[in-house]
Design a protein that fits this description.
about 30% strand, 11 helices, DUF34/NIF3_bac, alpha/beta, about 25% helix, single chain, metal-binding
Length: about 350
């Protein structure tokens, strides 16, 4: 869970979502992991048959609140079987959609896109931590904050700002000051240190700050920012190596995703800039147009939503499952790199896509 949530923090899931551990004991000893896009009854059966006691899926089995657990439908039947056989169920859904290296990055890589960026970055996920440190300890304090996840700006790490200044204080009678004498006013040379950090890491950052700082009482300011987080948000946009005629681009889509059909809107211009969103992405059509994309690839478009293209780009509906089918590769790579030879990490053979095509 720590490995998965470091890559896709639960704090980045949408408010309507239900990512994380859905059932099972967090202290369960892992014997094997089965990865699937959806957690169905057949997937749990496959996990049992293949000796896996953990199922990691993209879509949460428990999405809407359950009022009872009687086996009246497949969701309840799946949950009952998992509980009965001590199989833990874990989901990383919109939190994996919303990180730069998640679902949309995988789809973009399959299409061969370059110069990638988040299509709709999130606001309000960043904070600025300010503290005051004696110059002799600034580097140690900063390193502790970096280790806790602070100081990352895009592809740049260990980012900070410091200014020299003068601090004043009077230690109390029962204090053991780093510099000065109890009861006597003191003036000290200090550095004001500032770092950015994701707000969901503020607890870890403050613990690291207190442990590394030499003062008994650590002065700090934590300020919530309205900056966009350029590595967190919905959808992705990138560029093809060379412009393609619309028909050739659709052929590229079908080949890269292995899909039998692409539903699309008419568009005559060459395709160079491509926006995409795995799953149901109609809500980003306007963002795709604003980003200057000539094509927007997603799934689950309804009839009237195709009109939102307004002739300014080509909407391409490849299907919900089809746009997210490579998510299992993300889970596999994360787990196999972190737990080499400790337990089996298998991709489910069960096809969970409920949609079939007849030609």
């Amino acid at each position: 869970m720590r490995v998965l949530e470091q890559a896709a923090p639960l704090a980045y899931q949408e408010s309507y979502d239900n990512a994380g551990l859905q059932c099972g004991n967090p202290q369960l000893e892992v014997k094997g992991v089965l990865i699937a896009l959806d957690c169905t009854l057949a997937v749990v059966d496959e996990a049992l048959a293949r000796g896996c006691n953990v199922v990691v899926a993209h879509h949460p089995l428990i999405f809407k609140p359950l009022k009872r657990l009687t086996g009246a439908n497949e969701v309840e039947q799946t949950l009952l079987k998992a509980i009965k056989h001590d199989v833990a169920l874990y989901a990383a859904h919109t939190n994996l959609d919303n990180v730069r290296h998640g679902v949309n990055r995988k789809l973009a890589d399959k299409l061969g896109l370059q110069n990638l960026r988040i299509l709709d970055p999130k606001f309000g996920t960043l904070g600025k931590l300010v503290t005051y440190v004696p110059p002799t300890h600034t580097d140690a304090v900063l390193q502790a904050l970096y280790d806790a996840g602070a100081g990352q700006v895009g592809n740049y790490s260990q980012c900070s700002f410091r200014t020299d200044g003068t601090g004043t204080y009077t230690p109390g009678a029962d204090t053991n000051p780093f510099q000065g004498t109890p009861g006597q006013p003191e003036t000290a040379q200090e550095q004001r240190v500032e770092v950015l950090l994701p707000l969901h890491l503020q607890g870890a950052a403050l613990r690291a700050l207190r442990q590394a700082h030499p003062y008994e009482e650590v002065a700090y300011e934590l300020i919530k920012l309205e900056n966009v987080h350029q590595d967190v948000g919905s959808g992705m946009v990138g560029e093809l190596p060379e412009p393609l005629p619309p028909q050739e681009f659709r052929a590229r889509l079908r080949a890269a995703l292995g899909v039998p059909v692409v539903k699309y809107t008419e568009f005559a211009q060459p395709i160079k800039t491509v926006a995409l969103c795995g799953g149901a992405g109609s809500f980003l059509t306007g963002k795709a147009r604003a980003a200057g994309a000539q094509a927007y690839v997603t799934g689950d478009l309804k009839y009237h939503e195709y009109f939102a293209a307004e002739g300014q780009l080509m909407l391409c509906d490849v299907g919900h499952y089809e746009s997210e089918q490579f998510t299992s590769e993300i889970f596999r790579d994360l787990l196999t790199s972190a737990f080499t030879r400790k337990f089996a990490v298998l991709i489910a053979e069960t096809l969970t896509n409920p949609v079939r095509y007849d030609f």
